[in-house]
Amino acid sequence: MLKTIGTVVVLLFCALCGIPTAAATYDGITVSATADGRSVSASNSNEPIRLRPGEPVDVAIELTNPTSAPVEVRQVELVGRVVGLNFFTYATSVDFTVPAANSDTFHYRLDLTGLRGQATGLIGGQLIIRDAAGDSIATVPMVTDVRGSVLSVYGLFGIALLVLTVLALIDAAFGIATHRLSANRWQRGLRLLAPGIGVGLVLTFSASVARLWVPDGGRWLLIGGLTAAAFFAIGYFAPVPGDEGADADLDADLDADDLSKHVDTDEFAGDEGADADLDADDLSEHVGTDEFAQ
Predict the structure, then answer these.
(1) What is the pLDDT of residue 174?
(2) Are the C-beta atoms of 60 and 46 separated by less than 8 Å?
(3) How far, rounded to the nearest angstrom, does the alpha carbon of residue 65 sit from its chain's CA centroid?
(4) Does residue 124 contact residue 82 with C-beta atoms inside 8 Å?
(5) Rg of the chain in Å (alpha carbons)
(6) Region 212-221: what's the mean pLDDT?
(7) Which of 109, 172, 276, 284 has the most CB atoms within 10 Å of its CB?
(8) CATH number at residue 133
C-alpha cells in the first residue's frame, strides 16, 4: 500500500512536468488590463490582485490592433494555475470589436461567485482574451491573492498531498530503521525519491497558502528537484541491510550440540572423561563459525 502511495506521488510529479501551459497569440496585437484600477501585468507576490469570493471586480482591457483586419473579442477568461493545474476558471462572454490599425478599451464586471470553494492563497493567473472561435488572441499574466477557504479544492489537494507524503516518509523511515531496504544502493535511492518529491510539493503548496510566494513553474521544479535529490542521497548512502551484527547473531545461536559435531575431541583428551567436561565455550574456541554460515 505504501509503495503504491510513493508511486502515485512520482507519477503526479512526472505528469505535472509534462503539462503544457503556453498559449498562442496573434502577431502584433498588444493587450493591457486593469482590475479595480490596478495594472494586471504589474502584479507580483508583494502586490497581488486581491480576489474576494462574491465580490465582483471591474476589469478594463485595452487592445491595440496594428493589423489590416478587425479583431473580434468574444470571451475573456481568468485562470488560476499552480504546478500546471487549473484551480479556478472564470469565463465571461463579451462582444467587442477593434477595427484595423486602431486601439480601443472595453470594460466588464468579473463575477467571482463560488471562488471560496475553489482556491486560497497566492496563485499565478492569466487573463486570456479569445476570439469567436475560442482561439487565444492575447494573454496577460497576473498574480492573484485569493481569499478563499483552506477547505477549497486547492486546500484539499494540498492536504491530500501532505497525507500521502507523510505516509511515504513513515514507510521510508521504517525501512531504514529496520534495515529492510534493498541491498542495491540505486533501489534504495529510488525508494526515497517519492517522499522527497512529496516534501517539495508540500512546501510549494504550503508557501502558496501562507502567501509567502507564488508557486510558479521554475520555483516548484527547483524545490521539488532539490528535495528529491536530498532524499535520493539519503537512500543511496544508507547502511546496507544485514552488514552489521551478522557474525554476532550467528555465534549466539551456536550451542554445544552443534559445535560437538564439528570439533575433534582428541584435542581435549588429556584424561579420561574429558569429553563430558567440554562446554560451549571450550568448543567455540576450536571451531570456525564459517561452517555454519549458510
Answers:
(1) 85
(2) no
(3) 41
(4) yes
(5) 33
(6) 82
(7) 172
(8) 2.70.50.30
